[in-house]
UniProtKB/TrEMBL annotation:
Organism: Butyrivibrio fibrisolvens
Gene transcribed to yield this protein: asd
Residue ranges occupied by any Semialdehyde dehydrogenase NAD-binding domain in the UniProt entry: 6-138
Protein keywords: NADP, Oxidoreductase
Record's protein name: Aspartate-semialdehyde dehydrogenase
Annotated CDD domains: ASADH_C_arch_fung_like, ScASADH_like_N
Family as reported in the entry's similarity comment: Belongs to the aspartate-semialdehyde dehydrogenase family.
Amino acid sequence: MSEKLKVAVLGATGMVGQRFISILSDHPWFEVTTVAASPRSAGKTYEESVGDRWKMDDPMPEAVKNLVIKDVTDVKGVASDVDFVLSAVNMSKDEIKAIEEEYAKTETPVISNNSAHRWTPDVPMIVPEINPQHSDVIEYQKKRLGTTRGFIAVKPNCSIQSYTPALAAWKEYGPYEVVATTYQAISGAGKNFKEWPEMVGNIIPFISGEEEKSELEPLRIFGHIENGVIVPAESPVITTQCIRVPVLYGHTAAAFVRFKKEATKEELIEKLVSFTGKPQELGLPSAPKQFIQYLEDDNRPQVALDVNYEGGMGVSIGRLRKDSVYDWKFVGLSHNTLRGAAGGAVECAELMKALGYIQAK
């Protein structure tokens, strides 16, 4: 009998759900034993339901092909046979909030890729390398929910992973003002070029809700716990533009930063490449050995060359240089469906297991 923790993937047929299944196909700690989706998919095998809509580069894992899809709204039925759930459900924000809390109240931890609970005051929004200490708020959340082991934790917006890690690495220099433009892959909208042919050779200068997330979510990550809730940081002030570009995977950011304390280029690069966190200390299976790499070539980072750095879980920074208006500017790149979505959520689940929040039922 497997000693791996049993996982249900909610929203298993969508792009992020598929990525969860692909990542977990050979995971040392976790095993997908349950797949759940909308009522119209329930009762079919996973292979039947997904059919030719499998979007991953790797083939569909054999272990999930014959799993019968459960109705995601049958919360007790789905939760009864698993130790925790990974959520990528496609519902309205209010519906997601309600159903994720319902799962948590069955004493089943929920690690969510969705944005619905990112601003729930006692729900931690975690980049494991940056703010693992926010997991401490879970005990307050459990009291509110009336649970002993059930809780919700979320990962942040995918695009902020391309510049927020650099700001975290440079914390001691006091970044206080940031301008960032993100150039975001179409998979961030859950699509590929076959489904979105109008994106071929095209740029769309608007992504609904993305700029608000990009400006505010880093402040919650940099915040602190006070009276049982997470209080966002007041600095840095961030303004962004978010643009959809004809790339399948990889969000790129061009960022400009003002610092309170002077630093040399060499000092800033050293802080990037030496930046490490709890996942590296704990040796989490999905953790990159080196979280941030710095690329010296002027034409890097590039999506084609660098998006899969550290298996898609690392962040690439380049073109760090003095600016004539701000202090410094740089270009960042992260994989939006690995580090930015499903992979980041899996690493969060690994952190929760390592810290004792997720255990076998």
